Amino acid sequence: MQDDTIRRANEPAGPAREDESSGLSARIAQRIHGLRTAQRMSLEALATRSGVSRSMISLIERNEASPTAVVLEKIATGLNVVLAALFDAPTVNGQADHTATLARRADQARWRDPNSGYLRRNVSPEMASTSSGLMQSPIQIVDVAFPAGARVAYETAARDVAVHQQVWVLDGAMQITVGDETHQLDSGDCLAFALDRPVAFHNPTADTTRYAVVIATLPAPPRR
Question: Cβ(158)–Cβ(220) under 8 Å?
Answer without folding.
Answer: no
